[in-house]
Specification:
This protein is about 25% helix and about 30% strand. The chain contains 15 helices and 32 strands. Helix 8 packs across helix 9.
């Protein structure tokens, strides 16, 4: 195979700008997929992706682009009678899945920057563009959806010119839905994207950029070959984990697996390893031939999970099923972290780490659909950095928390730990300071909604940085980029929904982690019948503790079934009760058998009932089991 005829490229864009539809047209027009097998979002293999209309997992596909295809549409190819191998990777557009985009960019030389003509440049467009520029990729700007009546093509062109600094004639126009202009994009890919670099004579080196688990074949990895070649049945070696395996099957993706006997320099393909242990294939690892000494490929930065939640089964007997499911999904989701967790109220489960709320939602949905699990998910929280008063306390906590805390993360001092769960926060007497993760938040919004959006950001503890204008020829229909510094915890609950509501759906956001900053947060404990419920513990800002405490106990009172005795519902900080409610007891009508007569008889029976309830509480029969349904209602607060 001639290396000069290979082009590796990806499509990057904001969510819902037409990436998967454009990929569909590429596959259709190059004859990669027969028309009878063609369906919308062909590269979105998950049912969940089709249902939501979004791409969650990156998906590679190889296409053969020849002169014959172009000539049918009267478009001349660069080199007549020459076949080019185009390796396309369709990437996700949602902010939570930026790590998927970064994996794609490590394997390609060019990127199509796709912008919706009806929406213009959005927050994630800018974020993905910067990722591509950092990788020194050749950028091909394309405006999509030009066939729609509300398309603002000229305005979008001006925004792209201002953002990229390119010439207007370098911007391509298309309608991925109708196919207009799509073959012209493929011609430009051949012209503007350079062939892959790499030495065919050097020892084999390939980068793992994704993987999945097959029930019969074991772990299958997607790779980009940077040097040398790999033949079927050769022994391979994964450098990061020092794992040996055999290349039982190799091939390319069309987009289904198509076996070959050899993978060569510059190609994107797959390797069937036969491995059964999911954590032996690390995303970003270098694969080489066994017993060959080579230098590992420079990896890209692996993103750390930022949002944490406890995941438990409604039925405790299903824990083994949950464990198997989490391990299997981990293989397809390199950004997911998890560790065992036990709760007195909810039983055994996992404390899982995610990149954001959509990432959590997708993971939860996949557990339900693919493994038929009924789940309870605790209130999402962020990871806090805690500075202790001495290094000795860190050793004590390490022994106590075991795997739950993060004691050796990069940049941690001798007396610092990262906690992922509110119940792991040490006693205030041991703590010198608590720091919370901060983000740089970029919001793109039409100018008329600017005031409302800025007010929302301030309410969520945002610190204003600056405003940029997306220049266009029209000054009346202007859009702005608002930059804020904000706690990550502030956008975990309802920020996105409120932003969309305030801007009539036009605003979009992107954020990136920028470090930790001191925060005045405290642990809020919830007590039911004077017993703390670990699953309901949460970290809150000190000035919001009373409001949140009242809200929690009020929700509990509304949703907790009545018992045969009075139940105290309390919210506490340390040993101090800051909010309380009483759930009145269920009462049997002990006076029903009386028909008139002296009132003292009625009083005597009621007093006897009261003493019985008091005795029940004292003897320990007053322990309250919180039903799963009640937990779900409280955790959705």
């Amino acid at each position: 195979m001639e290396q000069s005829l290979i082009r590796n490229f990806c499509i990057i864009a904001h969510i819902d700008h037409g990436k998967s539809t454009l990929a569909d047209r590429f596959l259709e027009l190059t004859g990669t997929i027969e028309k009878r097998k063609m369906k919308e979002q062909i590269l979105d293999s998950m049912e969940l992706e089709r249902e939501r209309g979004i791409t969650i997992k990156l998906q590679p596909a190889q296409m053969i682009y020849s002169a014959e295809i172009s000539n049918k549409s009267q478009i001349s190819n660069l080199k007549p009678q020459t076949e080019y191998i185009l390796n396309l990777i369709d990437t996700p557009g949602h902010v939570d899945f930026t790590y998927e985009v970064s994996r794609s960019l490590a394997c390609v030389e060019g990127a199509i920057l796709l912008v919706d003509a009806t929406q213009g440049i959005q927050a994630q467009t800018i974020a993905n563009l910067y990722l591509a520029i950092e990788q020194n990729l050749n950028i091909i700007p394309v405006i999509n959806k030009i066939d729609l009546p509300n398309a603002e093509t000229e305005k979008t062109k001006s925004e792209i010119v201002n953002l990229l600094g390119c010439k207007e004639e370098e911007i391509l126009l298309c309608s991925a839905k109708t196919g207009e202009g799509v073959l012209g994009i493929l011609d430009e890919v051949i012209k503007r994207v350079p062939p892959p670099l790499g030495q065919a004579d050097n020892p084999f080196r390939a980068l793992i950029f994704d993987s999945f688990y097959d029930e019969y074949k074991g772990v299958i990895v997607y790779v980009r070959v940077f040097d040398g070649h790999l033949e079927k049945n050769e022994d391979i070696f994964m450098m990061a984990n020092s794992v040996k395996a055999e290349a039982l099957e190799i091939g390319v993706l069309k987009p289904d697996l198509k076996p070959l006997n050899i993978l060569e320099t510059g190609q994107i393909g797959y390797i069937v390893t036969g491995l059964k242990e999911v954590d032996k294939c690390r995303i970003g690892d270098t694969i080489t031939l066994a017993n060959t000494k080579v230098r590992a490929l420079p990896g890209y930065k692996e993103v750390r999970p930022m949002v944490f939640a406890g995941i438990f089964c409604k039925e405790g007997s299903e824990f083994n099923k949950l464990r198997e499911a989490v391990y299997k999904l981990k293989l397809n989701d390199s950004a997911l972290s998890f560790e065992p967790e036990h709760s007195a109220a909810l039983g055994y489960g996992y404390r899982c780490g995610f990149l954001g709320l959509l990432h959590l939602e997708i993971f939860q949905e996949r557990l339900k659909r693919e493994f038929n699990l009924d789940l309870i998910v605790t209130v999402p929280s962020v990871a806090y950095k805690v500075t202790l008063k001495s290094a000795g306390l860190k050793k004590e906590l390490e022994a106590k928390l075991k795997s739950r805390g993060d004691f050796n993360a990069d940049g941690l001092g001798a007396n610092q730990i990262i906690i992922k769960s509110p119940i792991d926060l040490p006693d205030q007497n041991y703590v010198e300071k608590i720091e919370e993760p901060m983000i740089k938040l970029d919001i793109v919004t039409p100018k008329e909604y600017m005031g409302s959006v800025m007010q929302l950001a301030v309410e969520k503890r945002g610190e204003y940085l600056n405003t940029e204008y997306l220049l266009s020829e029209s000054t009346t229909d202007q859009r702005v980029i608002l930059h804020y510094k904000m706690p990550l915890a502030s956008i975990l609950t309802d920020f996105y929904d409120k932003l969309k509501s305030l801007s009539s759906g036009y605003a979009s956001l992107n954020y990136e982690f920028i470090g930790y900053q001191p925060a005045d947060v405290i642990r809020l404990d919830v007590l039911v019948a004077e017993e703390p419920v670990e699953a309901l513990a949460t970290l809150v800002y000190r000035d919001e503790a009373y409001r949140v405490g009242r809200q929690v106990v009020s929700t509990l009172k509304e949703n907790l079934p009545k018992q045969w005795f009075v139940v105290k519902l309390q919210a506490a900080i340390g040993g101090k009760i800051i909010a309380a409610e009483r759930l009145s007891a269920l009462r049997k009508d002990v006076t029903a058998k009386l028909y008139g007569g002296d009132v003292t008889r009625k009083r005597k029976l009621l007093e006897k009932q009261k003493k019985g309830k008091r005795k029940m509480a004292e003897l320990g029969a007053g322990k309250v089991d919180i039903p799963t349904e009640t937990f779900l209602k409280i955790l959705k607060r």
